[in-house]
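Good morning N.,

You mentioned wanting to compare the apo and holo forms, so I went ahead and generated the holo version with 3-phosphoglyceric acid. This is what I fed in:
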Amino acid sequence: MTFKTLDDLTDIASKRVLVRVDLNVPTKDGKVTDATRIERVVPTIRELSEKGAKVILLAHFGRPKGEPVAEMSLKPIAAAVEDIIDQRVHFAADCIGDAAATAVAGLENGDILLLENTRFHKGEEKNDADFTKTLAANGDIYVNDAFSAAHRAHASTEGLAHLLPAYAGRTMQAELEALEAGLGSPKRPVVAIVGGAKVSTKIDLLTNLVKKVDALVIGGGMANTFLAAQGIDVGKSLCEHDLAETARSILTEAETSGCAIVLPVDGVIAREFKAGAANEVVDIKAIPADAMVLDVGAKSIAAVNDWVSKAETLVWNGPLGAFEIAPFDKATVAVARHAASRTKSGALVSVAGGGDTVSAMNHAGVADDLTYVSTAGGAFLEWMEGKPLPGVDILHQQK
Ligand SMILES: Nc1ncnc2c1ncn2[C@@H]1O[C@H](COP(=O)(O)OP(=O)(O)OP(=O)(O)O)[C@@H](O)[C@H]1O
Ligand SMILES: O=C(O)[C@H](O)COP(=O)(O)O
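and this is what came out, ligand included:
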């Protein structure tokens, strides 16, 4: 590693340390349903607090598009962080302005403060110079511990490192080391599974991914966009029809690169997005117009598991179905368990990453049986592609 870490941070008692963490955790009815991302940033927060720093946490939650949205407040998350770290976590209702300044001024050495969602301001995603300056005004030192948001060149993930002495947190360091160790020189065949819901932000990544892997399994909401691009009617399924052209060009690129594409051949359909909704398995070419595909069916699971059996390396981001609501967790759980058993036998190196993907692996009971579980989804895929990650690059430049 060629960046500064917490080992380089000495004499920080009473210093105001702005720590970028990723608290974009899965929630239901305001409660955190998977705390892995919080647990992973605890070592950095604790270490800084024990060294007497005033620890000021910066984070985003959801995609509020530059304006305050009540459901995307970090306030409930502050309580979850407090429970896990077992220390008071103060909260300020804005990440800049009077609310932030007053809360920071009131901190004692070792105190922890979480500032409200940085994405409540347009300047965050624009990496706006003035906004970054106002964020920096509350800190003496900047620590980035949000590897999973390092693919974003935002004010709190990249901009701040230009204005303050910048360091990598323990999780940032550990994620990069673990990914390099597991996937630095992967054994072939390499199989990638990409599913989930963030179709528009991840589809472009697949253009390069197909050049690097031997097979790409496409599931979840992502699969519907590819199926629709091939002229299949996906009914009311989550699908981004305007990405059909992109999807088709990825399929062409895969053919050129000799990468096998594995799309669902059957799907579990329902008419409501809720637990226990009436459901049935249909051929992928027979999705009724008023139904949505919420999971892949048994034939598709078998095809995916065939590839997992052939793989020596597996990378996985995005669940194969809406795993949070039973019974649409079946495919994700079945494939996760197969991957875990091959990993345990020593036949497979398996790395899964993503906020909901970690939650899915925990749900399947396999998080400890895979080679590595990363908190990063989009950042992990970009790292796989070999793309520079702005949040990591700027730390390297500081050494
Ligand atoms: N067929 C489907 N229809 C609707 N939603 C789906 C379907 N398949 C999966 N999903 C949803 O996808 C979501 C997870 O997708 P996402 O792309 O956010 O993955 P992730 O692991 O959280 O990655 P990241 O960390 O980049 O956010 C889950 O909430 C799941 O319910
Ligand atoms: O969940 C994630 O992958 C990170 O928190 C980044 O979120 P984003 O995709 O909304 O930038």
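The chain has a mean pLDDT of 96.

Happy to go through it together on a call whenever suits you.

Best,
F.
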